[in-house]
Structures are given as C-alpha cells and as structure tokens.
Description:
Chain B is α/β, with parallel strands linked by helices. Chain B has helices at residues 2-6, 51-59, 81-91, 107-117, 123-135, 151-164, 181-195; strands at residues 7-20, 23-36, 40-44, 66-71, 74-75, 92-95, 169-173, 201-206, 217-222, 225-228. In chain C, a hairpin with a 2-residue loop joins strand 6 (168-173) and strand 7.
Amino acid sequence: MGRAVTLMLPWIVAALAAATVAVWLKSGTSKDDSTRAALDVATMLAGESGEGYLRADGPREFEFPRDHGPHDGFRTEWWYFTGNVDTASGQAMGYQLTFFRTALTPRPTARPSTLAADHIWMAHFALSDISARRFHAFEHHSREAGDLAGAGREPLRVWLNDWSAEFDASGTTILLKAREGNFALDLTLRGSKAPVLNGAEGLSRKNAVVGGASYYYSMTRLATSGSIELDGRVHAVEGQSWMDREWMSGTLGSEQIGWDWFALQLDDGSEVMCSRMRRSDGTRDAFDSGSIIDAQGKQRTLTSAEFDLGVLVNWTSPRSKLEYPAGWTLRVPAMRLELEILPAQADQELGLSFRYWEGAVKLLGTRDGKPIAGRGYAELVGYGSRPPSSAALRAR
Amino acid sequence: MEDTEKVVVRLRAVEKHYREGDSTRRVLDGVDLDIARGEFLVVHGPSGSGKSTLLNLISGIDLADGGAIHVLGRELGKISETSRTLLRRERLGFVFQFFNLIPTLTVGENLLFPQELVGRVGPDAVSRARKLLDRVGLAQRWSTFPDRLSGGEQQRVAIARALAHDPDIVLADEPTGNLDDESARSVVELLQELLRPAQKTLVLVTHNLALGRLADRTLRVAHGKLAEEARGP
Amino acid sequence: MSVLVTLASLRALARHRWQIALSVLGIALGVAVVVGIDLAGASSLRGFRLSTEALTGKATHEISAGSAGVPEELFAQLARAHPALAMAPVVESLALAVDEGGVALGPGRTTFTLLGVDLFSEARLRPWLGEGGSAGIWDANLTLLSEPGSCLISAETARSLAVERGATLRLRVGSHFEHVRVVGVIVPEGPRATLALKDLLLVDVATAQELTGLIGRLTRIDLALADDAELAQRISASLPASVSLRSSALRLAGIEELTGAFRLNLRALSLVALLVGMFLVYNTMTFSVVRRRSLIATLRTLGVTRARIFRVIAAEALWLGVIGTALGVWLGTVIARVLLGLVSQTMNDLYFASSVREVHLDGEILLRSVALGIGATVIGALAPAFEATGERPRLGLAVSTLESARKSWIARLALLGSLAICAALALFALPAFGLEASFVGLLLLVLGIGCWAPWFTVRCARIFAPIAGRILGMFGRHAARGIEAQLSRTSVAIAAMAVALSATIGMGVMIDSFRSTFVKWLELSLEGDVYVAAPTLEPGHNRSTIDPKWVEQLTSAPGVAGFSTYRGFATHSAGRPVQGAAVSVNAERESAFEFSDARAEEVWPEFVAGDTVIVSESFGYRAQLGRGERISLETDRGVREFLILGTYADFASEQGYVLLSRDTYGRWFDDRGVTSLALQAEPGVDPDALVAQLRASLPAEQALLVRSNRSIRESSLEVFERTFAVTGVLQIFATLTAAIGVLSALLALELERAREIGMLRALGVTPREVGRLVLAQTGMLGLVAGLLALPLGIAQALVLVLVLNKRSFGWSLDLQVDAWPLLTTLGLSVAAALLAGALPAWRMSRARPALALRGD
Lengths: 396, 233, 856
C-alpha cells in the first residue's frame, strides 16, 4: 500500500504555514531556519485536529474522471506527478510536479471579498538533469482566490499561477505545464491503465487513529511526451509518468517520524508502489503497505508482512548535511520479486521551505529468476529533523 | 556759620586710598585745606599724585575714606548722593581736560544745559548763554557741534559752560593739558578774567608750573600730603 | 607672542560676561529658530517618507487607477503572464481607531494605515513586513487568511492603544465603522520593520477589501520592475484603459510636493529669525571690538600686525559661533518638539496622515544650521574686525564723536539697499522666477530695507530731537541726538528689531488678508444651509460616500427645498495625481462660484452639457491651464481630454480641484457615490433645527456628518487658525531675538558712554535723571525700529500676499491692512525696547562717575 498520507499531512500544513511566514523572512535567512520555523508551526498546527472536516473513514465509490478533481471538504489533498523521460539522444531526465491543497477552515463562511480564501496552495516543480548530475527545484504558494490557484472540475484542472495540470474529459490524458525562469516542462501524459485504488479499495489506513486514513489512488503508467527546458535549452522528451492522488483530514500517528516511498515501473509492464514507515523506535510499522499492478492493470495489495525493504547505503547532502538512504533492496517473496533500487543521481534533495528528497531511481533485479529492470521515483521524508511527537500534540 | 562766608571749601584730615592689586596706595593721607571765597588756587604735582582725586572729593563725585569735607557749609560725607549731585549742579562748575562738552548738543545748547538743570530756561537763559559765549569770543559758533571746534575753542566753551549757571566754585582739571602753551595761557587768562570780578573761587589742577604764577596760592601734592609753595615772583 | 595677544584679547573679553552671554544667546536663538523649524518640518515629512518607503518596499512601480481601483483579476492575469516578476496586490486605506462613541483613540488621534496584502506575494517586495515576531505570530499569519476581520499590529501600536492579542478594535474606515480582531502582535526587528509597522494595521487583502468596501478591486498592484523599461512598456501596453502603470516614486514625490510650499513658508520665517540673529552677531562683535579699541591700538603700537589682530578677532568670533551654534542646535531641538505638534497637526489637516511624535536629528539640517550659525557669526565679525584693524594705531581713545549723516557710509549703504530692493522687485515681477526666487527676493527686500536703517534712523533722530527737546528739554535732545551719534551701534539694533517686527507685521497682514478673503470665499461657496458629508480620511475614498438610500432619504426629508451633490475623487492627469470632484449644479451652486477668466453665463450651460471641466485657481496656476485649454484626465474609459471652461476661486485645497458636472462624471466614470450633500432649507425652516432633525434620522452604521453652514464656517476658520498657529510661535522667537539685540546694543552703548555719563554726573545730573535719559533713548530706539518696521512689514505683506501665495498655492488674496496691528507693533516695539533698556539704564545710573572719569 501507499504513501503515509496522514503522516505527511502536518508536514504539508507546516510547509504551507511556513510558506506564509518563511516567504516573508528576509532572503538572508537560511532555509534551515525557515524549516525549523516550519516544524514549530507543524507542532502547533497538527494539533488542530481534522475536526469539522470530512474524514476518510469508510469505503468510497470512486468515480473517474470526477475524482481527479478537488475534494474541498477534506483538509488536505494533492496531485503528485513524477516521471522518467529521455531525449532522442538518450539523455535521461526525471521530473516532479506536485500541487498541494490545504483548507484553512472546515467551515468556510461566505465572504464579500472574492479574494477571501478558504484554501491555500503549494506547488513543487523539480527537474533531474541526470546526465549532467544536476537538480533544480522550485516552489510557489498562493491562496485559492481570484484565479490565482485552485482546482476545478469543468474543466478538470489544477493550477497555481502558470503551473498547471489539466485533464481531458475522459480523465485519461493530462497536460502538465510549469515554468520557472529557464526551466520548464510541457508534457502530455496518456494513461494506458485504469486508476489503481490503493489500500482497501482506495481507503489507505496510516495508523490506528480514527480518521487516520486517506483516499488514495494512482495512475501508475502514463505514456509521456513533450518537451523539457533545461537552462534555456528545450529538449523533446518521451517516457513514463506516475500520478498519485490522495486526500484526507486525519492526524498524525504516534512514533511515525518519516517514510521512504517508491513508485516503480518495471520493463515487463508491471508496477510496484510501496512505502516503509519509519518509527522513532526503529521497529517495522504495521501500516506499511503497497500495491503491485500487472501489465494488464490488475492490482494486488501488499501488506507490511508481504514485502521487505532494506537500506544498502546512505548519502549525505552537501547543503543540509542531512543523511538520506541512497540504495535499497526490495523483496516481495510471494511474487518472487527481488529488486535493487538506486538513485539515478545522488542529489535530488528539494531544499525548499519544506525539505525532503524526491528523485528518479533505477531498478535492477529478478522476477521469477529472470532479470528485470526499470525506473521509478522515490520519496524520503523526515530525515534529519525530529517530527512532532504525538505527546506534544496531545499536550496542546 | 560765620566761616561759610569766607571759607567755601574745608578739608580736615582727609584720607583717600585706592586698592592696587594686593596693596593699598594712600593717595591723600590726612589732608587739611581751607579755600576762601574768591580765591584762585592752583594744585600741581606729579602724575598720579592725587590732584584729580582732590577735585573729585571736593565735587562730591568721589567720597573720602577718612576725615571730613565741607563744601559751602555742607559736609559731603553726611549728605545723600542726590544732595551731593544737586549741590554740584547748583553751586559748582567743571572744566575738564577733555570730554568737556556734550557732543550731541550744540555749543549753545551746552551752555543752556547747566541752566536747565537748575531750572533756568527761556529767554533769560539764552541771553546769559549768548553773553557768556560772546565773552569767550565764540558768539558766532552758537549752533556748532563741539566736534567742529578746535581744542582751545572747546575749552573756552567749557569755561563758559562752567559759568553758565553762576556757580560759586569752579573746578578745573587740567583744562590746558591738551593745549599748546599759547592756547593754555589764553584759557587761564580767560578763566581769571571771568571769575575774578564775580568773586568766584577757582580750583585749578595742573602739572603746568607756569600757571602757578597766576594763582593766589599754589599747592603741591606729593606722597599724600599738601604742601604750600612759596609765592612766585 | 600670538598666545599673549590672544590672552590679552580674551581677558578683555572676559571682563564682560554679560555681553558674551548675550552674544552667545543671540547666536543660539537665531540658530535655534532655524533648526527648530527645519527639524520640525523635516521630521514630520521624514516620518511620512520613511514609513511610505518602508511600505513601498522594493516595488518600483505600481498599477493604479482612480477612485474605483484596479480590478483584482488583473493581478492573477499579470501573475500568470509574468510569473517571474515580483508583484503584490495591495488594498490600502486610512483608518481611525475609535471608541464606541466614534471618538478617536490613541495618542494624537493616530490615523492608521490599513494595509491589506497577500502574504504569499510579499516575500519579494516587503520581506521586512514579517520580520520579527513573538509567540503566536506564526499561526496568526494563517488566521489572517482564514478569519475575516483579523489584523496584526506592532507591539508599539498595541501599547499605544492599550490592547492585547485577541482584542477587538473598532475602526472608522472612510465614513463607516468596522471591527477588527488583533490576532497577533508583532515585535519588529530592525529599523525598517519598525518603520514599516509604525501605525500600521496589517490585514489580509480580502479583509482590507471588506473593510474598505473595495470588493473585487485593489488600491494598486506593486511591482518590482528594476530598470527594465522595455518590460514596463510591455506591461503598460497590456493594461486596460482604466488603469495605468506608474513609478512608485512619483506618488511619494507628489505628496512631498504638496507640502513643499508649506515647508518653504516655514523656512522663510526661520531665515528671518536667522537674519535677526546675524544682526545680533554683528552688533556683538562690533561691540567686542570697540571695547578693545585701546587694547588693539596698544597692540598695534607694539608692532602686532593687522593680520594677527584680525585673526584673533576672527578666531574669537568662531568660538562664539561654535558655542552659540551648539547651544542653538540644542535649543532648536527643544523648539522643534514644540513646533512638531503644530506642524504635524497642519500636515494632518492639510496633506496626509502624519503621526510623528519624535524629532529626528537630521544630519543635513544640523550641518546646514552649524554652517549657518558659525558662518553668520564670522561674517558678522568681519566688518568690525576690518574696522578695528583698519584704524591707524593711536592711543586716542573712544571719544564718542558724532558719526553723523556727514559720513558717506550711510549713503553708500542706502544705495546698496536700493540695489537689493530693485533686485528683489525684479525677482517678484518676472514670472520666469519661481517660488524659491520669491523667497530670495523676500530676503533681498528685507536686507535692502534694512540697509536703509541708518539713514532712516538719522532722519528720525533729527525729527525727534526738537520734539523731545520740547518735552524733555536738553535731556530729550541729548537722547535723540545720542541715537544719531552712535549710529553704527543703534542702527544695527534698530535694523535687527525692525526686521523681527516687520516679520510680525508681514505675517499678520498676510494672515488678515488671507482670513478676510477666506471668509468671503466661505460665505460665497457655502451655498447650502445644511451639509451632510461622509467623513473621510483621504479624498476620493470610495467608502467615504453616503449610502444611496440615505441620499434619497436626506434629500426628500421635510424642510429640504433643494439639494446638490458632491463627489470627490482622485485621478491622474499626465501621470500626476489630480483631485477631482463631480458636482451637481443648481442655481444655488452656480452662485457659489466666481470665475476669474470667464463669465458665469458662459460657463454653466456648457459645463452641464459637454465634456468640460472648471478648475480651481490653484490648480490652474500649477498646471498653467485656463479657459479654452484642454486637460487630459484618466477616466474609467481611458485617458480623455476635457475643455476648461473657467477658473474659479477656491481655498479648499492648495493643489486645487478639477470639477466635472455629475453628468460628465457619470459618462466617464463608473463610480456613483456621493461624498456630500448641500441641502437648501425651505423658507422659514431654521437650519439648526433641520440639522437636529436630520441627525436624528441617520443610520448608526455610518458616520455621517450633518452640519449647518455656520458650523462648517466656524470649523473651517478653526483649521485656518491652526494652520497659522506655528507662525505665532515663530513671531515670539523673532521678537525675543530682537529684544536681545536691543539689550545687547544698549549694553554696548553703556560702555562706550561711560565717560559721557560720568561727565553728566559731574555736571550735576542725578542717577535718576541718567536712568530716565537712557530709557528715553531706548524708547526712541524702539520707536524708530517700530516706524521702520511698518514699511518693511507692509512690503513683506505685499510680497507674501501678491507673490508668495500666488506662487506657492496659486491663490489670489485681497490685501487687507488694518491700522490696529500696525499700532500694536509700534507699541510692542517701544515696550520691548524699554524693557530691554531697563537693565542698562539701571546699570548706567548706578555707575560711579569718579570711576568713569578716572584713568584718562
């Protein structure tokens, strides 16, 4: 099963809150300071439980393309696009474009001002220039008002300023657009498989807390073509993308301090999504989960007992001095699958107002004894800083 | 007082000293002096000997540090400043070495001024002033300001001014000090000419020994004492 | 050698502590007035400028429109079209914190700037806005977004309003009452944050829209375009007609320009004070030299060179200047504190929200004052120094002789004065010269007439002598002639005093003329019997309008016979801010205007019908526009040209108005608001009763002012008087300086006349008579100064009324000269002189004649 959604929630709120203030901070202030400030905010904000918001606490009838659109009654929601692409000359690149929505209040009031916002938005845009070993990451924040940012159903679209993801009427083709200075992407994503509902029919439990779950689905294989501009040079690219969609209102589980998440696309046409929750006591988290999808799009949910994820090697960021895992082994005995997962390049740390590592990975291994390869994306969150403890939260 | 008729100025054991730095200089040290009505007295002595001090004490401009000074029957140390001033204004006339005339008043006005002080105004005052000016030979300078006159002329006006209010005593402090010998002589002669017939007393302080010849009596001030000098030839 | 010369000189000086004290005091007062005025003016402006700059931040340009504001969609469009550009939407307004009764809170009824921002956009423009912080600030930022009516204030503001986090503030924004909740108190870190947050209510842009009623609109969009002119061009071209891109600096400059004339007037006053101070210094230095004439003569006979003596005197003047200036700067800051209240009150009344409470020691002003003080002292000492060293060395002493009119310097000085007066007249007459030139002219005029002081003094003394002689006898004659005899001393004192007094007369006549013209204008222009107005803190504010339903109700109320409407708005002409007004016209209103370049019947028919405007006199003067010419205005339909039909007299605003008829305004602007109503009472209805009746019927949610014609007139005059209150303070200082001048001059004379007094005393003049003589002389001195002050004052008044007001404000005033203030000045002059003469008179009468006569 998928990403530790509820764990991520306070991080996002924290990041957004940090954004509102950190962006204020003088440029002289280092990112670390603002992150620390952000964590403080997380401590405070995570305490404001999801009370009053809709909860992911039961089965749900998913409906596409409708559910590609926003779910405003929930506190947090995101649209997560990652992908590996190549130029005609074989130059490999990775990209990430993410839109986060956070509600400001569970009970929005009607206000005269159309600039009054009930939601605030954060978007991250990153490009991995793998052959050049360079990484570029950008962020924007905005209120959902006055056409500045938002998500709509007609047309199905999510945007922040000039960064956007737009679905066609069928919900299978997605146009991604983002630009920051001399870096840009303009990609068309075409789904060849139906959306995959992670967890229990799309309800992804993160912890034992009531409401500590999300609605979570993925589009695991999206044929991608278009262009990427790197430092002013436009490259025509082709490859595969992955979309994660999650929305929830829950709070944080205790002892959960971070996670490693993987979206892997194997060259036999199958995909694996799995995540490993990291607990402060170092034990395996019972809510670790995953999905495995075959070439025809059939999905099988993996429980924590069904897969094993081990760290091979670590890497220390030269900027933040934080240490991240930089190589894993994934074993799914039931599927006779053994994979070695390695970053396509070591440095894919997003040093934004919310610091994490998210980057392209490459895979090598065996399935049923036969060699297998592939590419994918990994996300490493919660390294180097202590996330808020539930005790602290309860004290508020 | 029967004396008053004859003796107009009487000094008894008069002392005057000035502080000079840490020491005290005795300028007059127990001086006795009687000056008779109509007398022409010349006082001379070296510079700083106390000649001028003697005049200042007699006129009441300055006060003695010891002894008594009687002027026209009044003891100066016992009457008020105002009384002294009034005595001066009414009974005394002054002639100085310089700065004799009021520069902002014309010659005529300078002669009217002392009369006005004693309340004599109008045609009488003017005719007296004109007469006096005529006597000193400057009748035509009535409307002239003093700074247009020569030194000798100024002193002549000063003499006329000193007599304008008909004083009993005229005090002259080096009236010729600023003048050449000829002018000096003519000034003193003028003084005598005007004062003698009117029985006025003249006390003249000078360092010019030659003037002593014209005096009834000549005194010399030295070391705080007065010494009578033998009459000249 | 040089040490001994200096020593000898200084010891001579030290014997006269009184004189030194007066010199220093004189210099100090002169400098103090200049420093005080400059500092007060600069401080009030600086406070405004710095906080505006802090709030402008890194923005170089702004997109703004007229009263209606900028459509908010424009921001999203621009953000999408130029994602790399730093830009931020702003809704800004002024607000008063008020209690439940609507009475302003805070020290000095602080006007707050209500700043509505989008926090996400501020990072690149005003990062310091969020600098600093205290517990609760972080989540307060999100609360600002999510909770309507929430605001952040600085700790200083919280203290001054005595509120804490969580408190509710009642505000008056425009004419409406609103509430905000303080969700965070910011402790600013760093000077810029402190300035930016000073008197600031920081709210979310949406909250600001709701508080100001600018729904869907922004006050402006701030942009940081750096020097990218091409980009500016591109953005400008892409904008709709109703909005325009302009430089942020221009807005600031515009406001500063507004206050320029006011500050220049203040500076002129301070220069008069310094001029008086300079006379004083000259007098003092002359005296100090005269006093040492014999010492100088001795030194010269001993072979000390002229240059050496000159240097000693110059050095002495320098020291006096330094000490006096230091004292003056200190005293100036004290004066500035007194003036600051008055000045910033005026700035508040007339120009912008200014809430400066502390005097800032501006380095430039200090430098200027120091240069002025020391420079004036040294220059003042030059002439006496020349005089002293130019003399042949002789032991001849200060025999006071008639420095009579025979001396050619009187004529030469008068000639010089005439040249100065001619130059001044040229500066006034030629239109090529502007406001600054007028001030130079004014100074030249004052100096020029001052140069005639010796001549005038001689004339007066000669006229006085026989008169005084008749009254006081020889004493009177002597007193009068003494003035002439010591002309070089007395004429300086007279000139100093006359200049100071003439400033009083000039200002007084100007203010009287202004007041009478103003009252006449008020009577003419207040055509209604009762006025209803939405109070405003800034002109053209869209919330400063009377709600339409109340307009309806008020105009149809019983007792109301007719009405006309008025709407003030702000727009731009050729990039410059313009105050406009839309008026409805009826017979009463037509009669309220007096045109200087057109006949009323030529104006009104066209005014209502066409795309035409009328402009106020001051606007016409500033823009150099008049009847028959065209003016371009930015309207909601783009820039349009309007024909000017006439220029009318107006004193409501010094920057002036452009008036449109209500119909014309309706054609080119979307705004339908009404700022105020003029109501005509039915015959027989008492306006005050009507006021009471209308007040009773008014809404509670809107702060509408209902006032009778009479009460408006009264409060207008109140503002008028307040505006000129500052000149009163300055007059006092100028007169004080002049009195010190007289005192100093008399003390100088005392020494020179010691021998003369001694002789008088020897001749039998009593001390009392000496005192009377001195007083008679000072009284005459005062009289001469007063007499000289009359033409000088009237000349200044003429310049102020006919030249300066015209060039500063574009206002034509009717000259009004009343005899009473002139007589008062004359009396004041004599009284001040007598007062100043009291001490010297006492001292001179007390002097022992023997001492004075001794030592020759």
